[in-house]
Amino acid sequence: MRLTVVGCSGSVPGPASPASCYLIEADDVDGKTWRVALDLGSGSLGALQKYCDPRELDAVAVTHLHPDHCSDLADLHVYLKYHPEGQSTVTVYAPFGASTRINQLRGTTDNSDVLHPVVWQASGEARIGPLLITCEAVRHPVPAYALRVEGPSSVRPGSTAVVTYSGDTDTCDGLEVAAAGADLFICEATYLTTYDVEPGVHMTGRDAGHTAEQAGVGRLLLTHVPPWTDCASVLEEATATFAGDVSLARPGQHIQV
Fold first, then answer.
1. Inter-axis angle of helices 205-215 and 231-241, to 10 degrees?
2. 3-state SS assignment for residue 183
3. Which domain holds residue 163?
4. Is 73 helix (H, G, I), strand (E, B) or coil?
5. Local structure of 254: helix, strand or coil
6. How many domains does the chain have?
């Protein structure tokens, strides 16, 4: 599997990055490349086109329906429907209410004929080519899921690699289940421990590091840091609680897993 960080800014797009979007690519035994976007947040569709034609997406897997994780589904509808080379379709795996949410973003009551929503169920699975995606319910003010992606390893031929993406969540059992033993853990770290915040929304860098340590992951990639939060402080908090490889996500970053 190969990961590309398309957008990693938290809560809103930032001056250096769109909001959340991560491209997963994997080749099957016949050499076909399969592509899945994890989230499609505000500003991400434009950046995604640097790395693939959106018509080449085999699926979009959405963690939850806040705009910084799904708003560019409206733009994807336009791209797929009106491209001069012809209309194409894509399956969108998302929480319940995705059809209504897509209509809201598009400003219509007519369901999209090119985006085909499939509702996530807790601990449900989706098989997309050589990729198996399992969702686990996590702790957020709206229905939200962490995504565990299993597929062929790019660095250990013949073996399976695991990438876990937290989406948005506070610490919870579901997140640890999704992250258990992952080779790469893409984890949100929105807050600092000095913030006075409501519980049940997001994690701190310290929380992300602790979860990674408890889950026994190989590598921690911190993401969803808002433009107003100091990235160096988030990284410092995470390294205090996770003994492994930890770094900050950056747009355009490519990782072989």
1. 30
2. coil
3. 2-256
4. helix
5. strand
6. 1
pLDDT at 162: 98
Could you tell me how many residues make up the chain? 257
**Consecutive H or E run containing 3:** strand 2-7
- Per the CB < 8 A criterion, the answer to whether 203 and 189 are in contact is yes
DSSP one-letter code for 136: E
Angle at 101 between CA 104 and CA 41, to 5 degrees: 100
Distance CA 57, CA 114 (A): 12
Tokens of 41: 């947040």
SS (H, E, C) 158-215: CCEEEEEECCCCECCHHHHHHHCCCCEEEEECCECCCCCCCCCCCCEHHHHHHHHHHH
User: How far is Cα 139 from Cα 30, in angstroms, rounded to an integer?
Assistant: 39
Q: Are 182 and 213 within 8 A, CB to CB?
A: no
Amino acid code (one letter) for 244 = G
Q: How many CB atoms lie within 10 A of CB 16?
A: 10
The two three-digit tokens of residue 236, written as one number = 């410092």
Residue with tokens 């959340």: 20
Could you read off the pLDDT of 207-238 as tens digits, one per residue? 999 999 999 999 999 999 999 999 999 999 99
**Regions in the chain scoring below 50 on pLDDT:** none
CB contact at 8 A, 9 and 226? yes
Query: Nearest CA to 135 among 64, 79, 75?
Result: 64
**φ/ψ of residue 255, rounded to 5:** -130, 125
Which tokens hold the place of 170?
């506070």
Find where tokens 């600092």 sit.
Answer: 192
Percent of the chain, pLDDT > 70? 100
CATH number assigned to the domain comprising residue 92 = 3.60.15.10
- Return left, alpha or beta for 200; rule: phi > 0 is left, psi -120 to 50 is alpha, else beta: left
Q: What are phi and psi of 116, to 5 degrees?
A: -115, 95
